[in-house]
Amino acid sequence: MKVSILQFPGTNCEYDTQHAFEKLGAQTEIVWHKSETIPEDTDLLVVAGGFSYGDYLRSGAIAKFSPVMQAVSSYAKDGGKVLGICNGFQVLTEAGLLPGALKRNDGLHFISKHHTLKVENNDNVFLKKLEKSDIVNIPIAHHDGNYYIDDEGLKELHANNQILLTYCDADGNISNPNGSVESIAGVCNKEKNVFGLMPHPERAMEVILGSDDGVKMLEGFIESC
Amino acid sequence: MIKAIVNISLKAGVLDSQGKAVHHALDSLHFEGVKDVRVGKQIVLQLDTDDKAKAMSDVEKMCEEILANTVIEDYDIELV
Prior knowledge:
CATH topology of chain B: Mth169, Chain: A
Distance between the termini of chain A: 6 Å
Oligomer: heterodimer
Distance between the termini of chain B: 9 Å
Number of strands of chain B: 3
Structural class of chain B: alpha+beta
Number of strands of chain A: 11
Order of helices and strands of chain A: EHEEHEHEEEEHEEEH
Strand order of the largest sheet of chain B: 2-1-3
Helix content of chain B: 25-40%
CATH superfamily of chain A: Class I glutamine amidotransferase (GATase) domain
Largest interface: A-B, 20 and 12 residues
Shape of chain B: elongated
Radius of gyration of chain B: 16 Å
CATH topology of chain A: Rossmann fold
Strand content of chain A: 25-35%
Structural class of chain A: alpha/beta
Number of helices of chain B: 2
Radius of gyration of chain A: 16 Å
Strand content of chain B: 25-35%
């Protein structure tokens, strides 16, 4: 399996992401944002986390005009699998590949900590190794992670099982760190080939570092190839 | 030369956490009678044209494509 990982100026999670997927046996390649194509044998394209373009204007707003993003759009429209983590999620919403938008956290603080998440839907390649209502422990690290979508959009997310994960406490009750609508932490598109989440599964690969719950998430992609 | 002033703010129904925090701070400082606070941003563009209609349509396009995220934000353009 080949995972291509996008790198913009300001991206800072590309090597963690590379390490995580290589640990699971995937081949990886880092793709600089100026490339107008993505490697032909790509099975999964990851838009890694960080602060692309210093978060100027809005998080992810400038990155969507990078040369590589046209290729990302066509790849996604042809059914290619795309995963956006944190800033990558912001880039994908800005680019219109995922519904909604990410606002400043309600508490206005940057939040960096482990958080438990509830699996809302698993009928997709990303979360198929987990069960509905499973609780996973994954780090979050963001300033603009407050997911917003209007009522109509929210209805669609529900109707198509597009809500992937919600923030919860250790018992699965809603616990909302940033003000996200319905405590949403991650969504996918209607076609279920583009995924975005604020938490960092690539930082949850080792028990000794706090959690290895990210393994089951990323393994879903490995197994689908 | 036309100067375009673009004001961008969160849509009316979208909670403005920064506005809320500023409102709270004003209350703490005993400034009374403030009913609501919204925090936005202003982008000022110098345009190399004298054609107001063209300037307006260009800036509208810029707002739709990049300056504002119309999922959560409204924009307002003033030409001077």
